C-alpha cells in the first residue's frame, strides 16, 4: 500500500506504515470508544458520522483492546503544536491523541478518511461486519491557525441547512474559519431586533439581473431570506462543536444599499432620494453608501451590539471594501463632517468610519478585520487586513505590524471559473484552475520572517452572484476547496516545487468521499451536463 491509496487530503506532515506488513486494524460490533477528558465532542462526532455510516454501535468503553482511544495530551502540545495530533494504529489498538481538543477533532477527520469513502455516507450501504483501517502512525499539525472560507449569503441567500452542511464540509477538510458575509447591496441577512426593517425590507428583492453588466436578462423571480438570531446561534454552536469559528461580516460604509433601502436616513439624502431606493437587484458596486453622520454610527453600533451577542468570535469583519466616494464628494453634509473632523479627503472619511469601529470593537474585547481598502486613508490601530486585491495590501499591513489574512482574488476566488471553454457555467471571466489553487502560497517571499508572522493564514472566498443554489455552490467550491485546504494545512514546498500529480492521485480517492457526501463537485473531466 502507498500513501496514495489512503488518499489523505490535506496531506499529513508525517505518515508511516507500522510495522511494515503488519496489516489492518478492525472496527466491529465490539469496538468501543474510550473517550478521555476533553474529548467528548469528538466522540459525539464519531458516533454521529462513522457510527451512522458503519451501523456500528461504538459504545462507551474504558479499556484499550478493540477500543478507539481518544486522548488530549497537553504534553504533546510542544511537540505537535496547536491543533496538532498523533494517530497510532499498530495492531494493538487505535489511538488518537490531540495536542488540544481541536487537534483531536482533526485526528478524527483523518481517521474517517482512512476508513474509506463509505464512511462518509449517512447510513450503511451494505451489510458489513468489519471495517478496516491500515496500521499507520501519523503526526500532523496545521501550518496556519486561520484556514477559512468566505460564504456570501447576501447575494444569494443560503438557507440554514446549507450553512450547516457547508460547515461539515469545511470540517472534513480541516478548515476552521467560516467568514459569513451577511450584508451587502443586494440583501441583509441577519435579524436585528431593534431595526426590523433591515430584514422585513432589506432581505428581499423582487428580481435579479442575470450575469454581469451588459446582460439584458432578468430572472423575474423574487429572492431573499434571512437568519433569525436563533438560527445564527445554532450555526455558531454547530461550528464550535467542529472547532470552527464563525466570523460575521457587516459590510460598511459601502455595500450598504439594502440597509439604506430599509432605513433611508442612513444614506446621503442630501444628494440622492434615498427613500426611493430599493434593495439592489443588479450585481456590481452600488454608489449608494452610508452618510457619515453620528446617527449612522449609532445605528451601526446598535446593530453590532446585537451581532456581538450572537457571535463570540474574537474577530469581527466590518467590510470596508469598494466604497465609491462620489456621493460624499457631492454631499454638503459629508463635506461639513470632513471639515469638522479635519479630514483631508474622502479616503480619510472612509478611514474615519473604520477607526471608529476599531475603537468600538476593541473596547468590547474584539478585534476588527476589514478588506484591504481599509489601508487607504490610514489603517486603524488594531485592525487586521483581509488582502483580496492581490498580496500588496497584506504585505503593506504586515510590514506595518498588522495581522493579515491572505485571500488574493488571483488565486483563491472560487467564484471565478475553473477552466476556459464555452461549457463552464460561470460568466465571471478569470480562470483559477485546481492547480492554481494548489500552488497558492499565503506568505509572499518578500516578507521577513518577523513580518511573515503576521500572516494568520488565508481564506478562499465564495461570492455568490453566480451561485443561486447548492448545486452551483458545490460546483464552484469543489474540488478547489480541497486544494486550498492542503495549501493552508500542509507544510508544502514553494509553489513551483509542489507535487500536483501526487495531489491528483490522492484526489482520486477523495472524489469518492465527496460522492458519498453528495457534493456536486466539478469532475476532473469537465462540466456536468446540468450546467
Ligand atoms: C469583489 S472581494 C468584491 C465582492 C464581489 C467579488 C466578485 C470584495 C471585498 N469585494 O463584493 O462579490 O469581487 O468576485
UniProtKB/TrEMBL annotation:
Assigned EC number: 3.2.1.52
The protein's name: beta-N-acetylhexosaminidase
GO molecular function: beta-N-acetylhexosaminidase activity
Pfam families reported for this sequence: Glyco_hydro_20 (PF00728), Glyco_hydro_20b (PF02838)
Cross-referenced InterPro entries: Beta_hexosaminidase_sua/sub, GH, Glyco_hydro_20_cat, Hex-like_dom2, HEX_bac_N
Entry's Gene Ontology BP terms: carbohydrate metabolic process; glycosaminoglycan metabolic process
Residue stretches making up the Glycoside hydrolase family 20 catalytic domain: 144-491
UniProt keyword annotations, A-Z: Glycosidase, Hydrolase
Record's GO cellular component terms: membrane
Annotated catalysed reactions: Hydrolysis of terminal non-reducing N-acetyl-D-hexosamine residues in N-acetyl-beta-D-hexosaminides
Family membership noted in the UniProt record: Belongs to the glycosyl hydrolase 20 family.
Organism: Streptomyces mobaraensis
Residue stretches making up the Beta-hexosaminidase bacterial type N-terminal domain: 7-141
Active site, per annotation: 322 (proton donor)
Amino acid at each position: 500500500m502507498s500513501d496514495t491509496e489512503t488518499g489523505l487530503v490535506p496531506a499529513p506532515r508525517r505518515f508511516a506504515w507500522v510495522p511494515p506488513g503488519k496489516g489492518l486494524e478492525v472496527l466491529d460490533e465490539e469496538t468501543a470508544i474510550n473517550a478521555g477528558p476533553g474529548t467528548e465532542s469528538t466522540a459525539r462526532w464519531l458516533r454521529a458520522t462513522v457510527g451512522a455510516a458503519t451501523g456500528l454501535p461504538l459504545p462507551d468503553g474504558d479499556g484499550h483492546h478493540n477500543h478507539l482511544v481518544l486522548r488530549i495530551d497537553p504534553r504533546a502540545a510542544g511537540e505537535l503544536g496547536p491543533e496538532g495530533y498523533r494517530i497510532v494504529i499498530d495492531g494493538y489498538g487505535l489511538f488518537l491523541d490531540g495536542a488540544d481538543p481541536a487537534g483531536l477533532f482533526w485526528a478524527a477527520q483523518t481517521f474517517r478518511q482512512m476508513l474509506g469513502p463509505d464512511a462518509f455516507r449517512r447510513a450503511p450501504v451494505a451489510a458489513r461486519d468489519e471495517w478496516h483501517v491500515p496500521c499507520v502512525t501519523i503526526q500532523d499539525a496545521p501550518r496556519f491557525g486561520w484556514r477559512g472560507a468566505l460564504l456570501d449569503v447576501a447575494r444569494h441567500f443560503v438557507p440554514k441547512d446549507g450553512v450547516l452542511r457547508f460547515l461539515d464540509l469545511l470540517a472534513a477538510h480541516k478548515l476552521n474559519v467560516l467568514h459569513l458575509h451577511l450584508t451587502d447591496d443586494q440583501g441583509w441577512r441577519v435579524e436585528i431586533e431593534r431595526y426590523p426593517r433591515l430584514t422585513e425590507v432589506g432581505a428581499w428583492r423582487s428580481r435579479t439581473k442575470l450575469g454581469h453588466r451588459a446582460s439584458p436578462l432578468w430572472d423575474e423571480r423574487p429572492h431573499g431570506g434571512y437568519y433569525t438570531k436563533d438560527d445564527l446561534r445554532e450555526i455558531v454552536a454547530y461550528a464550535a462543536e467542529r472547532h470552527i469559528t464563525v466570523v460575521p461580516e457587516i459590510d460598511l460604509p459601502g455595500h450598504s444599499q439594502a440597509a439604506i433601502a430599509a432605513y433611508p436616513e442612513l444614506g446621503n439624502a442630501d444628494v440622492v432620494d434615498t427613500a426611493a431606493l430599493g434593495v439592489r437587484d443588479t450585481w456590481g458596486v452600488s454608489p449608494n453608501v452610508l452618510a457619515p453622520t453620528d446617527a449612522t454610527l449609532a445605528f451601526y453600533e446598535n446593530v453590532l451590539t446585537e451581532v456581538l451577542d450572537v457571535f463570540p468570535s474574537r474577530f469581527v469583519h466590518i467590510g470596508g471594501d469598494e466604497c465609491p466616494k462620489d456621493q460624499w464628494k457631492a454631499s454638503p453634509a459629508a463635506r461639513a463632517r470632513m471639515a469638522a473632523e479635519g479630514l483631508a479627503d474622502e479616503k480619510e472619511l472612509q478611514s474615519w468610519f473604520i477607526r471608529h469601529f476599531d475603537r468600538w470593537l476593541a473596547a468590547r474585547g474584539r478585534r476588527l478585520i476589514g478588506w484591504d481598502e481599509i489601508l487607504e486613508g490610514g489603517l486603524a490601530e488594531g485592525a487586521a487586513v483581509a488582502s483580496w486585491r492581490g498580496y500588496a495590501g497584506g504585505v503593506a499591513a504586515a510590514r506595518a505590524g498588522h495581522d493579515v489574512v491572505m485571500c488574493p482574488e488571483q488565486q483563491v476566488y472560487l467564484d471565478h471559473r475553473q477552466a476556459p471553454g464555452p461549457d463552464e457555467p460561470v460568466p465571471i471571466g478569470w480562470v483559477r484552475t485546481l492547480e492554481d489553487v494548489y500552488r497558492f502560497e499565503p506568505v509572499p517571499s518578500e516578507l521577513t520572517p518577523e513580518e511573515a508572522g503576521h500572516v494568520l493564514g488565508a481564506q478562499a472566498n465564495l461570492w455568490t452572484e453566480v451561485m443561486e443554489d447548492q448545486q452551483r455552490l458545490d460546483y464552484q467550491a469543489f474540488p478547489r476547496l480541497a486544494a486550498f485546504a492542503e495549501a493552508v494545512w500542509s507544510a508544502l514546498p514553494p509553489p513551483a516545487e509542489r507535487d500536483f500529480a501526487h495531489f491528483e492521485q490522492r484526489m482520486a480517492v477523495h472524489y469518492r468521499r465527496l460522492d458519498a457526501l453528495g457534493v456536486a463537485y466539478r469532475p476532473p473531466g469537465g462540466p456536468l451536463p446540468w450546467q
